[in-house]
Amino acid sequence: MPEEIFAAEVAANQANWEARAMLHAKFSFYNVDRYVAEPELISGVVEWDRRILGDVKGLDMLHLQFHIGTDSLSWARLGARVTGLDFSRESLRAAEELCRRAGAEVTFVQGDVRRAHQLLKRQFDIVYTSVGVLCWLPDIYAWAEAVAACVRPGGRFYIRGGHPLISTFEYGRDDTLLVCRSHYFTDGGWTGSYFRGW
């Protein structure tokens, strides 16, 4: 589809993430001060994903849609040479500040993930995205082409998705039964702060 069809939605999404990035950097859920205080701390997302990706020491990793950088920092702590790309300028500022305070070397780039290969002009051993990135994409085909162009021959692309349907459920009293607590289908667009902007 032509870019102009997506322009208003893209602008609204970007404004949403610009506003949320600095809030998330202060939000207890992300607990960025703990990453500074505890040099060995690895995010729960990365703890899960490293079981599949294995040893990343010495590998070039591109982290797409990094948000405020806690996962990028975690991969750097595990020995990867990390470059992060996100379209939010405020996310970039928050991630750079976190890594500066934590003493980690991570390169962050602000730009449209659908043009990652044009912006970065290089390839990586691992192109990585974590939970909650797909639901924000206006053009998954352009995104997939950019991802493919960034993977070095013999390299890997890793994604662990999460669907917004998950947020409609909670565990019941005995933690063995999922209970639907909210509506999934609404008349308006879905907005939330858990998932990362593209």
Key features of this structure:
198 residues, alpha/beta, globular, 18% strand
For the biggest β-sheet, the strand order reads 3-2-1-4-5
**Outline type:** globular
Helix-strand string: HHHEHEHEHEHEEE
Give the helix/strand class.
Answer: alpha/beta
Strand composition percent = 15-25%
Describe the structure in your own words.
It contains seven helices and seven strands, in the order αααβαβαβαβαβββ. The protein has 198 residues and is of the alpha/beta class. The strands form two sheets. It has a five-stranded parallel beta sheet with strand order 3-2-1-4-5. A two-stranded antiparallel sheet has the order 6-7. Strand 2 (81-86), helix 5 (89-102) and strand 3 (107-110) form a beta-alpha-beta unit. The radius of gyration is 17 Å and the shape is globular. Residues 189-198 have low confidence and may be disordered.
Strands, helices and their partners?
Layout: H1 3-26, H2 32-37, H3 44-53, E1 60-64, H4 70-77, E2 81-86, H5 89-102, E3 107-110, H6 116-120, E4 124-129, H7 140-150, E5 151-159, E6 169-171, E7 178-180
Parallel strand pairs: 1-2, 1-4, 2-3, 4-5
Antiparallel strand pairs: 6-7
